[in-house]
Amino acid sequence: MRTEEAMDEARTEPGGEGGWRTAAVLAAAAFATSIAQPSVLVAIPFLLLVGTSGIRGRGTILAVAGAMVLALSGVRDGMWFVERAWALTAGGAFVALSVAAPGWRVTSRALASIASAVAAIGLFLLVRVDAWKALDWTVSDRLRAGFTTWMDAMSILRDGQAPPPTLVSAIYRTVEAQVAVFPALLAIETMAAMAVAWWLYVRLVQRSDRALGPVSSFRFNDHLVWVMVTGLAFVAGWGGEAVTRIGANLAVFMAALYAVRGLAVGTYLSGGISFVGFTLLALGILFAGPVVVGFAVLLGVADTWLDVRARAASIAS
């Protein structure tokens, strides 16, 4: 396991071709794991980042106007306030770290800002015990309402016929799983959204292509493997429902990070992902998702100790 902090924390690499491919993948990841509105999680950190340096150029003016519309629009129900409170807390921490530690990787800043936001909100929930129940109910209600909408839409597409019971059961189980681990999904979505916000800020305000590194360079502090170990221990232990749920969220969040790290290792070793390779990967996830994702997680965890990319580079040289 590597311990050099400079290798893990303090380097911003240029993103090939302006980093737009990486930004597109991150945007897709934010939408795929969306608990809150991804557009809000991009817009608010972007506005906060622009506030640190001011508006420069017509493109930035248009982007700021669009971000303000996204941040302020929508029906102002309970979820509207939850989304914006979370985006302000996590986004504010991200901006503070971007100013205080500009040499850190985007990944490191995003992880630290999410940890700070979770800690701050956790302290608030300890003081206001009923607030967690209200928050859990608000998010759960949004997800289950989405399930009802899907069922209604499928019935319309089938000329009023109800969807097959097996499909309804599968979708319902998926929604209930999302309800249980929505904090982890929200953290994953927020990481991706903040990286997109950073890319927009650097491209429009700083006019630089050094916003995001290529996917093959993705890594994070190796010691975070113990967060995953702790999560799995909580799930396997006998600490009660609350401890099990905390463990499940830790495990899901870290599994997602290690899956991306495994993809980064595979991309590095193959020299990049072509259109054909991307298509095959998408088909693999579609038809054998658990197998493909599981292999990526194992490869990412193995990279923690083996540092596959460094070994491959030393062999090549």
Question: What does this protein structure show overall?
Answer:
The longest helix has 32 residues. The N terminus is likely disordered. The protein is built from 13 helices and no strands. The protein starts with a helix and ends with a helix. By secondary structure, the protein is mainly α. It is globular, with a radius of gyration of 20 Å. Helix 3 crosses helix 4. It folds into two domains: 199 residues, no CATH class; 104 residues, no CATH class. Helix content is 77%, strand content 0%.
Q: What does the main sheet amount to? A: none
Distance between the termini: 22 Å
Mean pLDDT: 86
Task: List low-pLDDT spans.
Answer: 1-16
Helix fraction, binned, reads over 70%
Derived from helix and strand composition plus strand pairing, the structural class reads mainly alpha
Which series of helices and strands comes N to C?
HHHHHHHHHHHHH
SS field, number of helical segments: 13
Cα-atom radius of gyration: 20 Å
- DSSP summary, beta strand count: 0
Classify the beta-strand content into a percent band. Answer: under 5%
